[in-house]
Write a structure and sequence with these properties.
With 276 residues, this protein is α/β, with parallel strands linked by helices. Helices cover 25% and strands 26% of the residues. The chain is globular. Helix 1 packs parallel to helix 3. The longest helix is centred in the first third of the chain and has 17 residues. The model has no long low-confidence stretch (mean pLDDT 97). It has six helices and 15 strands. The strands form three sheets. Strands 1, 2, 3, 4, 5, 6 and 15 form a seven-stranded mixed beta sheet that branches. A six-stranded mixed beta sheet has the order 9-10-11-12-13-14, covered by helices on one side. Strands 7-8 form a two-stranded antiparallel sheet.
Length: 276
C-alpha cells in the first residue's frame, strides 16, 4: 500500500485544556470525513507553549486526560494519530515534551520525548529555555504502520541532521515533526530545514504547528508543511487555523533514490553514522 492520506491540524491553542482537546477532536473528525489515514496534531496542543504552563498541564501515561482522549480519538475514528505533543510527567516527577502515537485500535505504538531542548537566545529576537522546566528524552523514535515505518521528532530536534539520517538508514518513509517555531526562527529556517532534511534523506518530512496567536507569550510561526523526497513542497499553510489534507505516494521515495542514488554512493568504508 504505497499511498496514504495524511492530515495536519494547525489548531489554535488556548489556556483551557478541555477546549484544546475538544478542538483537536473536531479537527481530527473533520480529517476522517475526508478519508484521512494518519492525522497529526501540533506541538504542545493541549496548553500554551510557556514554561509556566508545563507543570500545571503535565499528565502521566496512561491515565492523563489528554492521553486517554488521544487513544479514544484514534480508536473511534479508525486512524493512526500522532498526538502532537503535551507535557508528560514520569514517576520521578520529571516533565518531558512528549508525543504519543496511537494506532487504529487506540493502542500506543510510539512515544517520543523531545531529545534536544530548546534553549536559545537570539539577539534582538527570541529567548527561551525549555530546560528550566523540561527534561530531555533519550530515544530515537520509529514506529511501524501498515503503510511502512515512520519517524517522529519534535521541533528543535529537526535541527540535528544526524537524528533524521539515522531514521532514514533504519528505513523510515517519512518523519512527523510536531513543531512550534517562532516569529524569529520560523521565517529564517522553517522551510529550509524541512526541505533540507527531506532532500538529504530522500523521505517525506511533515511539520505540524500551532496556529499563530499574536496575544500569546510565545507566538507560533504556523506554516504547517509537507515536503516530498525530491525536496518539493506539496502543501503549506499560512498562520491561521486550518488543515492540510494530502495523499502522499511512498513509492516516490524509491523512484527518487533510483534517479539520485546517494544512499548507494555513501562511502561507509571511510565514514559512517551509528546509533549508540
Amino acid at each position: 500500500m504505497s499511498k496514504v492520506k495524511v492530515g495536519l491540524c494547525q489548531m489554535t491553542v488556548t489556556g483551557d485544556k478541555g477546549k484544546n482537546i475538544s478542538k483537536a477532536q473536531a479537527m481530527v473528525e473533520d480529517c476522517v470525513k475526508k478519508g484521512v489515514n494518519i492525522v497529526v496534531l501540533p506541538e504542545m496542543f493541549n496548553c500554551p507553549y510557556d514554561n509556566s504552563y508545563f507543570p500545571k498541564f503535565a499528565e502521566t501515561y496512561p491515565t492523563g486526560e489528554t492521553i486517554k482522549a488521544l487513544s479514544n480519538m484514534a480508536k473511534d475514528n479508525g486512524i493512526y494519530l500522532v498526538g502532537g505533543s503535551i507535557p508528560e510527567k514520569d514517576g520521578e516527577g520529571k516533565i518531558y515534551n512528549t508525543s504519543f502515537v496511537f494506532d487504529y485500535n487506540g493502542e500506543l505504538i510510539g512515544r517520543h520525548r523531545k531529545m534536544h531542548l530548546f534553549d536559545i537566545d537570539v539577539a534582538g529576537g527570541v529567548t527561551f529555555k525549555e530546560s528550566d522546566t523540561l527534561a530531555p528524552g533519550n530515544d530515537v523514535t520509529i514506529f511501524d504502520t501498515k503503510y511502512g515505518k515512520f519517524g517522529l521528532c519534535i521541533c528543535y530536534d529537526i535541527r540535528f541532521p544526524e537524528l533524521i539520517r539515522i531514521m532514514a538508514l533504519e528505513g523510515v518513509r517519512g518523519v512527523f515533526v510536531p513543531a512550534a517555531f517562532n516569529m524569529t526562527t520560523g521565517p529564517a529556517h522553517w522551510e529550509i530545514l524541512f526541505r533540507s532534511r527531506a532532500l538529504d534523506n530522500q523521505i517525506y518530512m511533515l511539520g505540524t504547528a500551532p496556529a499563530r496567536n499574536e496575544e500569546a507569550s510565545y507566538t507560533s510561526y504556523g506554516n504547517s508543511i509537507i515536503v516530498d523526497s525530491w525536496g518539493s513542497i506539496l502543501e503549506r499553510l499560512g498562520d491561521n487555523e486550518g488543515v492540510i489534507i494530502t495523499e502522499i505516494d511512498l513509492d516516490k521515495i524509491d523512484k527518487t533514490r533510483e534517479q539520485i542514488p546517494t544512499f548507494k554512493h555513501r562511502r561507509t568504508e571511510i565514514y559512517d553514522l551509528k546509533l549508540k
